[in-house]
Amino acid sequence: METQSSGLEPGLYIVAGPIGNLGDLSPRAAEVLRLADVVAVEDTRVSARLLRHAGSDRPMVPYHDHSAEGVRLRLIERMASESVALLSDAGTPLISDPGYKLVRDARAAGRRIITLPGPSAAIAALTLSGLPTDRFLFMGFPPAKQKARADTFAEVAALRATLIFYESGPRLSESLAAMAEGLGDREAAVSREISKAFEETQTGTLSELSARYADAPPKGEIVVIVGPPGEAPQASAEDADAALIEAMERLPVSKAAGEVAKKLGLDRRALYTRAMELKG
């Protein structure tokens, strides 16, 4: 593959930018921004400041969620002979930011793709939270509509993992209250303005945090970290009997035992034996 005079081979360079402090831009990322033939950005006004910090005078091309397909196709065409840097407004491109279609189509076209790792608000907030980090799920922004939001929380309520959400200040208190209702009142953390002058992280239960922000919606970029569910208490013999009696009013013994086993996390064979005793 022919190397360009700029020193960068043709292809797509996914550049992680700072989420706040400009000093977090890596030397390698700064070099790519100085050498790339073109820089694809979400907002030219936002990215211009970072390019100046990196000492870059490279031309910018807007690329965001509302870009026409033709913009993406032209960028992919340019990658055949030019270096294209992809830069989001903050943090790592593609993480709750546009770009995955560009990467997907560039890969399908056989273009060279290089990623320059760096800051991510989701991971930074997770490290600040003091909550389990061994298993986590990034959820992006919760839906704005109440029904869709409740369905989203119900889908992951039983998942034994720490959950990561982005949220806006005006919606934060309501969203935290909905999480407490849909996920249970778990331990959580709210981080805002990470790596900036007014960075803060507040911890507590979801209901406590919802109350904290009810009358004082915070400003800035916000990440909510929600701890995994606690261990469910073991069902008692009385609970199992009551569930079996209720289920046998609707179902044959075998199916009733299976339903209760799934619901209470108990052994199906033992429940079947007990169900036969209760029926007798």
Automatic annotation (TrEMBL):
Subcellular location: Cytoplasm
UniProt keyword list: Cytoplasm, Methyltransferase, rRNA processing, S-adenosyl-L-methionine, Transferase
Record flagged with keyword Iron: no
Enzyme class: transferase
Principal location class: cytoplasm
Pfam families cross-referenced by the UniProt entry: RsmI_C, TP_methylase
Catalysis performed (reactions): cytidine(1402) in 16S rRNA + S-adenosyl-L-methionine = 2'-O-methylcytidine(1402) in 16S rRNA + S-adenosyl-L-homocysteine + H(+)
CDD domains on file: RsmI
Domain Tetrapyrrole methylase: 12-209
UniProt record, GO biological process: methylation
GO MF, any single term: methyltransferase activity
Alphabetized InterPro entries for the sequence: 4pyrrol_Mease (IPR000878), 4pyrrol_Methylase_sf (IPR035996), 4pyrrole_Mease_sub1 (IPR014777), 4pyrrole_Mease_sub2 (IPR014776), rRNA_ssu_MeTfrase_I (IPR008189), RsmI_HTH (IPR053910), SAM_MeTrfase_RsmI_CS (IPR018063)
The EC number(s) this enzyme carries: 2.1.1.198
Family statement: Belongs to the methyltransferase superfamily. RsmI family.
Domain (RsmI HTH) ranges: 235-279
Gene (UniProt): rsmI
Role played: Catalyzes the 2'-O-methylation of the ribose of cytidine 1402 (C1402) in 16S rRNA.
Top-level lineage group: Bacteria
Protein name: Ribosomal RNA small subunit methyltransferase I
